Amino acid sequence: MKTFVLGGGCFWCLDAVYQKTKGVSSVVSGYTGGHERDPDYYSVCSGTTGHAEVVAVTFDEEEVPAEIVLDMFFALHDPTTLNRQGYDVGTQYRSSMFYQTTEEKILFEEAIERNQSLWAHPIVTEVSRLPMFHVAEDIHQDYYGKFPEQGYCQVIINPKLAKARKYYSAWLNA
């Protein structure tokens, strides 16, 4: 099993897609990359903690290759916008990849290079060593699964799920 810690805007979006990805055994929403010892949703959303909203995606490489997990990441958010995804603005929404090993760092850098051709502007995704990972509050775990009719889920997450189904249907559960 391998775990990647990825930030691509609001963690609910990445969580929703990876929850439906074959070979993914768990997706944990959380915070990392900041200076506050015990961040919570409201402090992170204030933009003052330095943390990013992220997901820790644990998967079996025999069922879904690491490259597919990373390519999905780059397809599901705009990695060319600094500290912003749509209406979500601030460093907490930055495009980010947090590695735990040199091997992961290389995989992340290769994924950036591989996916750059899909974007007209340079990818600005931050690649950093993973500091402490803080698990987000229970309400944020599998948010889409709990609240699929909520407005944010309908307007923001559903189009991302549709895009994932279009390009990655072989890797998604129904």
TrEMBL record:
It comes from Arthrobacter oryzae. It catalyses: [thioredoxin]-disulfide + L-methionine + H2O = L-methionine (S)-S-oxide + [thioredoxin]-dithiol; L-methionyl-[protein] + [thioredoxin]-disulfide + H2O = L-methionyl-(S)-S-oxide-[protein] + [thioredoxin]-dithiol. GO terms for molecular function: L-methionine:thioredoxin-disulfide S-oxidoreductase activity; peptide-methionine (S)-S-oxide reductase activity. The lineage of its organism: Bacteria, Bacillati, Actinomycetota, Actinomycetes, Micrococcales. The keyword Oxidoreductase applies. Its EC number is 1.8.4.11. Has an important function as a repair enzyme for proteins that have been inactivated by oxidation. Catalyzes the reversible oxidation-reduction of methionine sulfoxide in proteins to methionine. SUPFAM superfamilies: Peptide methionine sulfoxide reductase. PANTHER family: PEPTIDE METHIONINE SULFOXIDE REDUCTASE, PEPTIDE METHIONINE SULFOXIDE REDUCTASE MSRA 2. This is Peptide methionine sulfoxide reductase MsrA. The active site is at C10. InterPro entries: Met_Sox_Rdtase_MsrA_dom (IPR002569), Met_Sox_Rdtase_MsrA_sf (IPR036509). Residues 4-154 form the Peptide methionine sulphoxide reductase MsrA domain. It comes from the Bacteria. Belongs to the MsrA Met sulfoxide reductase family. The gene is msrA. Keywords: Oxidoreductase. The keyword Oxidoreductase applies. Pfam families: PMSR.
